[in-house]
Amino acid sequence: MDRAQKEQLVEDLGQIFESSGVVVVAHYEGLTVAEMQDLRARAREVDASVRVAKNKLAKIALEGKPCESIADHLTGMTVLTFSEDPVAAAKVAQGFAKDNEKLVILGGAMGETALDVAGVKAVSEMPSREELIASIVGCIGAPASNIAGAIGAPASNIASVLSTIEEKAA
């Protein structure tokens, strides 16, 4: 890799570190190519990405970025999982690590907030952006259906009372 390629890689990594909602750092020693492809496929499904980069170049790219705190985790064979959604990359990494013990999560960052292993796990358990939107839409729609039910209920109650009175009178 020549100097120009390294500079381009540092620039690309810098953009990733700046624009990502969450970055998770993990060791991947012992993962096969097929297992790494599985991790990448899982990440693609939720609009997250997986990247292996030289630690030294990643540390250079981290300088001055909000997630600079993850530089301490960049030792050994590290892989970065990242996404704009603040939860997606953590969910992918945590789920894959649960299925495959060769991926060892070291920590990460959510903006300027440094995450340890427990922090990454906590973030992975949070609802994703899509799940939050769905629950908000459900909450907005629920009162309307309750009102419609409440308005319709007294009329049906009156109708049943009138039919009961009519049956007794007959």
Walk me through what this model shows:
Forms part of the ribosomal stalk, playing a central role in the interaction of the ribosome with GTP-bound translation factors. GO terms for molecular function: large ribosomal subunit rRNA binding; structural constituent of ribosome. Belongs to the universal ribosomal protein uL10 family. This protein has 170 residues and is an alpha+beta fold. 58% of the residues lie in helices and 16% in strands. The protein contains 6 helices and 5 strands, in the order αβαβαβαββαα. A 5-stranded antiparallel β-sheet has the order 2-3-1-4-5, sandwiched between helices. Strand 4 (104-110) and strand 5 (113-115) form a beta hairpin.
Condensed summary:
The chain is of the alpha+beta class.
Helices and strands, with pairings:
Blueprint: H1 3-19, E1 22-27, H2 33-45, E2 48-52, H3 55-62, E3 78-83, H4 88-99, E4 104-110, E5 113-115, H5 117-124, H6 129-169
Antiparallel strand pairs: 1-3, 1-4, 2-3, 4-5
Helix pairs in contact: 1-3, 4-5
Task: Name its key features.
five-stranded antiparallel β-sheet; 2 domains; 16% strand; 170 residues; 6 helices; Alpha-Beta Plaits; alpha+beta
The rounded Rg comes to 26 Å
State the helix count.
6
**SS content category:** alpha+beta
**Largest sheet: spatial strand order:** 2-3-1-4-5
